[in-house]
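quick q for whoever's on today - can somebody do inverse folding on this one?? i tried earlier but teh output was garbage lol. tokens:
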């Protein structure tokens, strides 16, 4: 067997059929068989896995504090009053932004209102969006687990989540589509450098 054929055969035997990238590493000498002292030089390759979609892992993400406290409801009187009387409205606004428009404000509001009026388990539904919001912006799980926060202080939690989105530049009441359009317009706005020249 020709030497180049032996090297190709070795690569087929020892390299797994996976989408890996190979780079030349080093050479070593390995006895071919017991019958002869001839040696073959096998190229040793180092493998590199293809880059993943996200380089960050849950335990690598630095968690940041919320912009306002859980009991800071009076920092925004309007959202405080709306949430006190109709928490489903605040939840609908907030959840549409968190879902990035995949679900509508009206649908989430209706589901929340139905659960709120018929079952005591609304917090299990609403706490899911608190967790989703936290992971999106890398926020701390404070002051305790998301489910406990919503079970014990759901109205305060909804107000806090509303204020958090507002502090990050979202006009929560206008919905995801309007916020996304506004952000695109800002990103595409031309930058004028310097003043007028004659």
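ok took a stab at it. sequence:
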């Amino acid at each position: 067997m020709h030497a180049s054929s032996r090297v190709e055969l070795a690569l087929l035997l020892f390299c797994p059929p996976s989408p890996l990238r190979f780079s030349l590493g080093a050479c070593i000498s390995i006895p071919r068989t017991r019958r002869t002292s001839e040696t073959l030089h096998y190229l040793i390759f180092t493998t590199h896995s293809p880059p993943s979609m996200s380089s960050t892992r849950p335990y690598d993400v630095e968690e940041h504090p919320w912009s306002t406290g859980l009991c800071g409801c009076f920092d925004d009187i309007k959202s405080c009053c709306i949430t006190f009387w109709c928490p489903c409205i605040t939840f609908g606004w907030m959840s549409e932004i968190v879902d990035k428009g995949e679900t509508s404000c009206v649908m989430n509001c209706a589901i929340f209102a139905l659960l709120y009026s018929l079952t005591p388990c609304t917090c299990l539904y609403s706490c899911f969006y608190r967790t989703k919001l936290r992971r999106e912006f890398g926020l701390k799980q404070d002051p305790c687990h998301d489910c406990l926060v919503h079970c014990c202080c759901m109205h305060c939690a909804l107000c806090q989540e509303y204020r958090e989105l507002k502090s990050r530049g979202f006009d929560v009441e206008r919905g995801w589509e309007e916020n996304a359009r506004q952000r695109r317009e800002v990103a595409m706005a031309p930058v004028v450098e310097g003043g007028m020249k004659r």
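fwiw DSSP finds seven helices and two strands in the chain. also The radius of gyration is 29 Å. so keep that in mind when u check it
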